Amino acid sequence: MRNMPWRDFFALVVSIGVVGLGLGATMPLTALTLDQRGVGTDIIGMITAVSAVGILAASPFVSGWVARFGPRATMIGAVWAGALATALMQLTDSLPAWALLRFVFGGAMGVLFTIGEAWVNRLAPDNSRGRVVAMYTTSFTLFQLIGPALVATFNGRIAWSFAACGALFLFALPGLALISNSGPAQEADEEGVRWRLILPRMPMIVLGAAFFALFDTLALSLLPLYAIRHGISAELALLSATVVLVGDTALQFFFGWLADRFGRARVHTACGVMVCLLLPLLPFAINTPWLWWTLLLLLGGFAGAIYMLALVACGERFSGHSLTSASAIVNATWGVSSGGGPLLTGVLMQTAGINALPAVMWAGAAVFVASALWERRKSFGAEPFTAR
């Protein structure tokens, strides 16, 4: 880690902090505001899903924008887009208008995801990739966990809450000014690698990203409503999402160290198994406070590690422009899963019962574990892949 370009890495920490703070504040604020207006969980799931569609829609265009404007300017543009889209939600109660603004917000977040994740893997040395990527993802959740706590603190006390959340984005601009305008831009002009050549080499990566996108989006948007329906106050319900993110933040570097020491694939699979074991306990733990908070901490840590180690696997398996394409696939996967997941879960919670939430999360984790065991049996992805 001695040769790390720390100035660029700091800029990445700032950019992922913007993503985390934006998602962490606006998603529960949006869900809680709609719930207080009497909107059902199915509609709330739809509004949440629109942000994910924005992430998906932006992914194919990021390389072109980086080639034309450079990575730093592209990130700054994404920050402004996210800030304005959030602030403008203050000016209207129209659900179609909110859907459009959340679409723009999601696209801005998708730009930051794609540039940041590809870049951190280029910066990371092979022998410490797990720890470097863990530092990056830790910064994401460290800022993200502040969001629900802010909403819980200021809910009902600040009239212009969405405008205030939008303004928070602008604090990232001084940090982004430190980033060098090189690196990813040098590769953006190369001929793109076809996704059909890369996608078959990353089933575990894709399903790991899909699971965490589902888990993270549901934890921020519908977990507070799940807790409220079980009799927990709105303030504590919002803090439930924060506790999940605290577990994610606190344990990422530890899992990165484990991956560097004992092998990424082994630790990756073990985290998926633990999530499958813990999720069925949620309905039984919610009425026992110490068990509820402990369970949320552990779930946040193990689920977050699944995503972090999926990014590590990208760096292990791909290099050059294929790494950028793999990162774009990860973010397209995030868009699909975080869009369709809340939509499906909101409908199921409305029709089949509130405990559909942990059931959907468990199904996503089980599919990931199945893919991990399949890859391990096939010795899949052992050799790095570079395409031109």
TrEMBL record:
Major facilitator superfamily (MFS) profile domain segment(s): 8-388
Protein name: MFS transporter
Keywords assigned by UniProt, alphabetized: Membrane, Transmembrane, Transmembrane helix
TM segment ranges: 43-66, 73-91, 97-120, 132-152, 158-179, 204-228, 234-255, 267-286, 292-314, 326-348, 354-374
Pfam families: MFS_1 (PF07690)
Keyword Calcium found: no
Gene3D superfamilies for this protein: MFS general substrate transporter like domains (1.20.1250.20)
